[in-house]
Amino acid sequence: MTAFVYATARTLFGRFNGALADVRPDDLAAASISGLLAKAPALDPASVGEIVWGSANQAGEDNRNAGRMAALLAGLPVSVPATTVNRLCGSSLDAAIIGSRTVEVGDADVVLVGGAESMTRAPWVLPKPDRAFPAGHVTAVSTTLGWRLVNPRMPEEWTVSLGECNEQLRDRFGISRERQDEFAVRSHRLAAEAWDAGFYDDLVVPVEGADLARDEGIRPGSTTERLAALKPSFRKDGTITAGNASPLSDGASAVLLGSEAAADVIGLAPLARIAGRGAAALEPQAFGFAPVEAADRALARAGVTWDQVGAVELNEAFAVQSLACVDAWGIDPGIVNVKGGAIAVGHPLGASGGRILGTLAKVLSERGERYGVAAICIGVGQALAVVLENVTTPAVAA
Q1: Residue 59 located in a structural domain
Q2: Is 89 part of the annotated catalytic residue set?
Q3: CATH number of residue 277's parent domain
Q4: Bridge partners, residue 250, by sequence
Q5: In the Cβ-directed half-sphere of 304, how many Cα atoms lie within 13 Å?
Q6: Which of 165, 188, 325, 377 is labelled catalytic?
Q7: What's the total number of domains in the chain?
Q8: Residue 108 domain-assigned?
Q9: 345-355 as b/e, with b when 16 or more CB fall inside 10 Å?
Q10: Cα–chain-centroid distance for residue 12?
Q11: Beta bridge pairs of residue 373
């Protein structure tokens, strides 16, 4: 049995402490699910066999199985089961991979997957003391991003900041500050152009009560000159700045998967076939480079080579790691993130995998390309990738 993408939806993405700051992550998730189901009005929600949801934090309002909470808040029948997975930045792409396997083995004909994150609302946490009533002070730890409550047995080189990890990639591959800034400016320009052209109009759903017309992080006026004036964020003599790295973000994404036979139940024709999947892992500090192997594995399993790939959606955690991956693949940079990427659009950790999968399916259809790759790097040294085959254009899919 084969798994297909039938529909995708995501919320607008907000900046940290921005327009979505007052919206709980489970409400963001419910908004994306409701928006997705609205695209398939013929589908009886009770026919959804499983929900697989991604969330990277799960320390605050997104605890207690965020997928189940979102399904209930979205009004799905209580009979629809749900689970929540955590592979950090790759959580919603992992959800899609798990959901596609669920379809392929015949456990469900229709599976709803996705992910959500409110980095603004990620709480501070306090560790429980080793014994009662300690006399000393206790420090609250932010769960917004990165390592927290680190096990002292972890080697120090593994637990450096995400920014320092990517400065090390810059050292390894000699990727200049100028290239990083140019990549970031391109991301903002292409995202703004895509919004202006209406590309995102049917992909993005609004969030009730939020005064936001498009993704909040996009800066159409970005220039290399402006980015060059920003100070390095992680090293005094470094190259990574707030301008060439993805921002802290809030948002959610959802994807409807199903078997070929599910078309009648869903009431839609499929958009793309899940043709291959890949996961890879390496040293934690080199996580930004992990998509190279993950994508290569996904392509090999799909029986596809890079010269057959017409579009790539690579999550832009940092410009430097994105450039390192594109260089290693040896592909035309012009096919990568043609509608902008996370540097502009935003990177709500648990939602980004669903975003790139949905964007890729539409880009393939719009451009008439047959194969595309969605890939994402993951903290602590991992990455995931999915190969999609466009089935919307008969001449392409034949």
Answers
A1: yes
A2: yes
A3: 3.40.47.10
A4: 14, 118
A5: 24
A6: 377
A7: 1
A8: yes
A9: bbbbbbbbbbb
A10: 13
A11: 312, 387
